[in-house]
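#random but structural
TW: two for the price of one
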Amino acid sequence: MRTGRPKKPIILSDQEHEQLTSIVRSRSLPHGLVTRAQIVLMAAEGVISNEIAKKVGLSAQSVCKWRQRYLQQGISGLHDELRPGRPRSVSDEQVATLVRKTLNTKPKKGTHWTIRSMAKETELSRPTVHRVWKAFGLQPHRQRHFKLSTDPFFVEKLRDIVGLYLNPPDKAMVLCVDEKSQVQALDRTQPLLPMGLGYVEGVTHDYVRHGTTTLFAALDIATGKVLTRCKRRHRHQEYLQFLKYIDQNVPEHLDIHLVVDNYATHKHDKVKRWLAAHPRYQVHYTPTYASWLNQVEIWFNIITQKAIRRGTFRSVKDLVSKIDQFVNHYNKETQPFVWTATADSILEKIKRLCQCISETQH
């Protein structure tokens, strides 16, 4: 019987055997590499090529190929060779032109570029424009809002409030206080269509207004819990009532640091007189146009997204009831927000933003 030219035997050292076994046992390496390591191990044990081919599901010619590659190059020969692939159809100059147009120009018939309009302008395909934009992080369809504070004491107020967050005073409670006004009790004109398999929840585009409420909230930065009260209006009278509610719910032995914005209600003469009569209160005003420094704004966003925006309310009383229900559940499982930004890091970010604005005006 003719068996062909005899194969050169594969003799493995202990180290080579250990490396190949490690490759075979790996769950993260490519399947092809694992199969080739199996071929070499079986060949070293004297298994013939046809038998190896049946066990690994390859042809006998492929088994012989990888045996030979291992004999010539060792373990490095088992890895795939780099393939040239199709040559690039878009030159560096075309990519640079696309990026420059995206950053420095606007279309004649719109406020921003779209993939279709840019593809037509540059005579490139839509997938090419999309890949380049994604590679360079370009998003002409999106905007990010900002507002620089004009407060002359911005730096001092920033350091004061951030200092409270990062190093809260002993035997004191830091409360971030604000009100969310004009919370509407909206009722849809027709019943909701429940979500099902293959389709989303259905709501009518129109609604009926049943009135509004103002949600006052005080966030304890140490625990994340909130004290809330809903009022019909948001005058200084309601704010003062809320301060008295806070006073009743905070232990008497604790000082109270209030972080509030510059809304006129918070600086009313009657409010100032009440605070002066209660010396355990210290008020820290955020800089103008810097409501993002007040942590209670984060909580307002949470309750808006989870309990108000998609809610259906038949009356203001129903709205207030569901707000109270959400707050009760929230306080049972709450955790404090983790504030990590230092005053210096915030100022450095604002400095970069100012430089960017300055450069665009030249």
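TW: number two ↓
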Amino acid sequence: MTSSYLGSLVRKTLARSWVASPDDLVISAKELDEVSPLLYESGAAGLGWWRIHESELRETTSGELLHQAFRFLALQARIHETKIQKVFRSLRAAHIEPILIKGWSIARLYPQPGLRPYGDIDLLIRAEQHLPAARIGASDELRDCRIDFHPGAFELADRSIDDLVSRSQQVQCGDEQVCVLGNEDHFALVAIHLLKHGAWRPLWLCDLGLLLDAMSSDFDWELCLGKDKRRTNWILSAIGLARVLLNASVNDEEIGARANAPGWLVESVLKNWQTPFAGAHAPQRHHAPIKSYFRRPRGVISDLGRRWPDPILSTISANGSFGRRPRRRYQIRNCVQRAARLALPGTDPA
């Protein structure tokens, strides 16, 4: 069994799995047994169940396990919504208005709760409000909420916080209005976040497919792509991946013609989908902090092999473009950057 086999099986299972009425999944019970652990561990069990819930595969052992996972994720989704409402009420009482990014902001668009799990409550916040917001987040009232405050976001570094706030929108979350990014900014964040982490989690590409399918005719592609040519290339490459791997649609002919994913990028994603688990990818796959080998060098050679950077995240970290040329130069640059940070006190470059 090759790595491309498992990656392709994940691809086949999740293709257009986000739609309200997905096509029946045409795989054998044996193949479902093989792909189910990958879906379960990567957070895509709910989508796996959604894909088979009207087919005979739902009666199999793996089908029932996916069903149980979906039920649990649906319950978690309701609990998370309650926590989000509580967090926004607490911050607004202190005249702090954050923007909810990732997590619920994308999960709310799926046809059923439980199809898109998430953990932390990620909030984009003005730099001057970060300290008071962090104090509120650490209070006893919110101690059961996993809040991550961001005074900025790498994915949106080419956009000012004032512009992001001016384009943000209020949406309903239970009894509370919640502020989320405007559609164009949200799409850019989802696309670049996918690539920044090496696209190892299939669910991230499903998010992009969902946004593409739900896109309105007045979507402003010029605003979404931005003025930075490198970031424009990143977003278009992510769209190309969603089209090639998950059969996502693009409602704009010009964008569809520009959105291309080079072959090495597609193959890298399929390879990563062979093991779509956090522990199999940097930095969790490293056995020990690199500085620990200065005292005890045993095992450093094998661990250096694990630290050879993924070609996708190397391209992002080097501010490179996704083209046909080999990635080696970006991977070497990534290694040099991390080695240089060794000299900084208290750091352990991944």
